[in-house]
Amino acid sequence: MNPFDLTGRVAIVTGAGSPTGIGFATAELLAELGAAVLVTSTTDRVQERVAELRGGGAEVAGVAADLTEPADAQRIVDAAVTRWGRLDILVNNAGMTSVSQPVGEDGPLEAMSLETWRAGLHRNLDTAFLATRAALPAMTAGGGRVVMVASVTGPVMAMRADPVYAAAKAGMVGLVRALALDVTVRGVTVNAVAPGWVATGSQTPHEHQQGLRTPIGRSATSAEVAAAVVFLASPAASYITGQCLVVDGGNSIAEERA
């Protein structure tokens, strides 16, 4: 038996609107391994990703949804179950930035408004909570997978003037560990992937330069992060739960920078 074969399984990948992002790369790989995939983003651009995936032969559907809203989180789960009759995998990738709500959240804590703080938590942590809460009752017993796309920022490292993003992503890993203890009796595993610098379309010149200073000497590709996500979503990771897999080119272990 191929431990990476996902034939017959159904996955939801949130935050998959960007053609260069981790969410879309994850959906591509899940589909390549045989899964049917429902992808979401906050805008109708998700249908462009659906068209690309279908062009490659994938069984895929797309839903525009605001996953800070409980009703929308439930709606994406219902859409997957109605279409394919089951749900096996949830990849919580939504967060960081939103095309429909481009709210900046950096800056020193003492200058941050409560509105900005709450918006950052809603976008990065509440989305994972709401999607997971909606998905778990529908998730296939004995083989369900929840994978959170967190970050090294918060769980492992931190950057100056970025408190709410760090708090949200650290909270996501805490949610992983707590939830893993609660749902393992049902055969559902819960894990996180913590990317470092990633060369997406939204990467800034500063972030690109930081990627060059990692031990590997470059930023990750979205496909490299997606490979870690899909591993944790596959039968190959059946004995792994409550863990955070760091994908940062060794950046977090290096005391010196070039």
List the defining traits of the structure above.
258 residues; alpha/beta; Rossmann fold; 7-stranded parallel β-sheet; 14% strand; globular
Overall description:
The protein is α/β, with parallel strands linked by helices and 258 residues long. The chain has a single domain, classed as NAD(P)-binding Rossmann-like Domain (Rossmann fold), CATH 3.40.50.720. Helix content is 38%, strand content 14%. It contains 7 helices and 7 strands. The protein has a 7-stranded parallel beta sheet, with helices on both faces. Helix 1 crosses helix 7 (222-233) and helix 3 (70-84) packs parallel to helix 4. The radius of gyration is 17 Å and the shape is globular.
CATH class: Alpha Beta
Spatial strand order of the main sheet = 3-2-1-4-5-6-7
What portion of residues belong to β-strands?
5-15%
The CATH architecture name reads 3-Layer(aba) Sandwich
Estimated structural class: alpha/beta
> What is the rounded distance between the termini?
45 Å
> What is the H/E string?
EHEHEHEHEHEHHE
Low-confidence stretches: none
Question: Within the CATH hierarchy, at the fold level, what is the topology?
Answer: Rossmann fold
Q: Can you tell me the overall shape?
A: globular
The pLDDT mean sits at 95
CATH superfamily name?
NAD(P)-binding Rossmann-like Domain
Q: Tally the beta strands.
A: 7
Rg, nearest Å: 17 Å
Helix count?
A: 7
Number of domains in the coordinates?
Answer: 1
Main beta sheet: strand number and arrangement? 7 strands, parallel
